[in-house]
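dumping this here before i forget
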Amino acid sequence: MTTWIVLAVIVAIGVYVISLYNRLVRQRQMVREGWSGIEVQLKRRFNLIPNLVEAVKGYMTHERETLTEATEMWAQAGHVPSGDVAARAQAEGMLGAALGRLLAVAENYPDLKASDNFLDLQNALDKVEHELQMSRRYYNGAVRDLNVMVESFPSNIVAGQFGFTK
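structure:
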């Protein structure tokens, strides 16, 4: 009888460990999925920027510095490896700031603001920025959930044994 009880406890612990491991794997996959969503939106934004800069160039003859800055930030963001989250965040932040300045300066050019091409590009960029914000929220939530599991008892024991990290 005692042997059966011990065996049942061992099986229950084993099932629990497997369950925790599978939850950790699921959380890690959600983090990867979240980052992938951010990458897709960054790529969409990255592809819009040259068209936006070209549309603006003809109108903004006195704003070369702003155009150059946006182009340089675009090029730098394109060279950051996709797996380097911190560097990607910094490069994309600088690119976003440069785009903001470019769009702010564009407000001084009524002919540009009336251009259908520019308006279409600006609307597409707004949509991408909205999607990017949603992707970042998903990613942050997935990271938070994984971190909670990695740090909480008893899942932290399983996480440590199988190499899960924050």
